[in-house]
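Worked example 3 (structure in, sequence out).
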């Protein structure tokens, strides 16, 4: 990957806080990728972001797709679900944000386009790319015999100025924003989620879910983005024949997790691999669980 000609030219869709903090520097610094182009609904934001990395500013998604090998998304789910199928049909590999769409139908349209074209896809389930998470899941898989688990993801992110203008996060709430992360991790730990047994949304957007897993295990999740807690509380625990195993905190920064994601993504593209535990099909599964929870909570 030393040869610049082998770097993947990646276009970035979006220029908000997450794009500036994680996507853009990650793509620019990784030896296997180059931030080649940026498109955002506000051209001024795209120009400001692209200028720091020598990337081209595009006037439309179509223009961006014509100049890159892959596309990374940092936009609301409905916008991603509109552009991602176009990118896949143009043969562009995809780094997708979660949730993949705002509905199951939107997520399926993205997945169908990926499947039809054979491009690589990864969903940015950030914590799955942290070394401590991978070690924790490997130990759980090796031991087996887990009967249940619980998780808390409690944050004041939507009380901060950083996401004050993120309309979709304020509208969809914790279930859509951190729900994919929480469901993904407890699913990976205990086995595929097959049922949403209970779901409740309290005032202030505090979500509590009870999930059933394929092997008979059950789990509970508690999530909020509107609690004034610092630092953010993130802990996962499972219990069974081998006692209790806990994963707490976020020791690996999101930026490092993104680098690890890019390691996998570049390897997938160059090897022609299209399957990964965090590919677009994972995104569809998580979307189904979240939609079932939202319906059950009313």
């Amino acid at each position: 990957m030393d040869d610049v000609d082998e770097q993947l030219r990646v276009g970035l869709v979006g220029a908000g806080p997450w794009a500036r903090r994680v996507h853009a520097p990650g793509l620019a610094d990784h030896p296997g990728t180059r931030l080649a182009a940026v498109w955002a609904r506000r051209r001024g934001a795209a120009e400001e972001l692209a200028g720091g990395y020598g990337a081209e500013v595009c006037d439309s998604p179509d223009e961006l797709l014509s100049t890159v090998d892959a596309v990374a998304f940092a936009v609301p789910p409905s916008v991603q679900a509109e552009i991602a199928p176009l990118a896949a049909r143009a043969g562009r590999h995809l780094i997708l944000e979660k949730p993949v769409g705002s509905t199951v139908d939107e997520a399926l349209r993205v997945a169908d386009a990926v499947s039809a074209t054979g491009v690589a896809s990864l969903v940015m389930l950030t914590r799955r790319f942290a070394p401590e998470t991978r070690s924790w899941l490997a130990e759980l898989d090796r031991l087996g015999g887990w009967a249940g688990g619980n998780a808390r993801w409690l944050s004041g992110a939507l009380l901060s100025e950083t996401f004050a203008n993120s309309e979709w996060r304020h509208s969809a709430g914790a279930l859509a924003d951190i729900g994919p992360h929480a469901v993904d991790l407890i699913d990976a730990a205990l086995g595929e989620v097959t049922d949403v047994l209970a779901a409740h949304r309290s005032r202030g957007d505090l979500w509590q879910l009870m999930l059933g897993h394929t092997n008979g295990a059950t789990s509970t999740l508690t999530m909020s983005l509107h609690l004034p807690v610092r630092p953010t509380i993130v802990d996962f625990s499972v219990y069974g024949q081998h006692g209790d195993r806990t994963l707490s905190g976020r020791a690996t920064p999101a930026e490092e997790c993104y680098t690890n994601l890019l390691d996998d993504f570049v390897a997938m593209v160059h090897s022609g691999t299209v399957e990964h535990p965090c590919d677009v099909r994972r995104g569809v599964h998580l979307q189904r669980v979240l939609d079932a929870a939202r319906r059950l909570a009313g």
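Notes: Residues 131-251 form a domain with the Dihydrodipicolinate Reductase; domain 2 fold (CATH 3.30.360.10). The CA atoms of residues 84 and 143 lie 39 Å apart.
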